[in-house]
Structures are given as C-alpha cells and as structure tokens.
Design brief:
mainly beta, 4-stranded antiparallel beta sheet, 3-stranded mixed beta sheet, about 35% strand
C-alpha cells in the first residue's frame, strides 16, 4: 500500500512535496507545482496554437492548445524558481540552481531542455 502526505515546500512557495511511502525506492516522491506564470514567448517559440470558440471547448478559449519549441520571456518570470506556464500546464519550469541541486542530489527521472 502507498500512502501520501503533503508537505509545503519552501521553493518559491510554489510547490508541494509529495513523498510516497511503501515504494521500493525510499525517498521517492513528486513535486506539485502550484504557481502559474504567464511567460510563454509566442514569437520566440516555434509555433503556438490557441483554443478558439469554434473548438467548442469554452473553458479553454484563450489558453494554449499546442506549443512547439517552447520559449519563455524571462522578464515575466521574476524570482520564480519552480512553476508551470499559464495556459500550457504541460511544462514544469525549474531554475538553473534547482536543476543543479537535483543533479547534485542524484535525483533521476527528469529531462531538462533550455526554454
């Protein structure tokens, strides 16, 4: 059986650490990002598509339907270190220092791309 406990994470007050017990890997868990930043750079990204009224998904109108080669406007990010992009929550963005800390701790399972 796996149990779940939520613990507030101090990383920019934007994540919850979700440790999982009962797994074969002690210390295993996930981050849940709760901060969304409107920072996608439409012009620098290769292609962006938006949900439109004709898509008949009124709750998604104005949000991104697809983003190819995502790029962000760093000026919009401010001091955020871990966040998801507003309108396109597929991407989890982490700062370089968080990436380095994950590497130093030998955390595996993540793939990083410059955005």
């Amino acid at each position: 059986m796996t149990t779940l406990a939520l613990e507030r994470n101090p990383v920019a007050h934007a994540t919850w650490a979700i440790p999982a017990s009962g797994t074969r890997n002690p210390g295993c868990g996930r981050w849940l990002a709760t901060r969304f930043v409107r920072c996608i750079d439409d012009k620098a990204s290769k292609e962006v598509q938006y949900w439109m009224p004709e898509d008949e998904r009124p709750e998604k109108i104005g949000h991104y339907r697809g983003v190819i080669d995502l790029r962000i406007d760093r000026a919009q990010v401010g001091n955020a270190k871990v966040f998801r992009t507003w309108g396109w929550s597929v991407a989890l963005i982490v700062s370089e220092d968080i990436k380095a800390a994950l590497g130093a701790a030998k955390i595996t399972g993540a793939r990083f791309e410059e955005v």
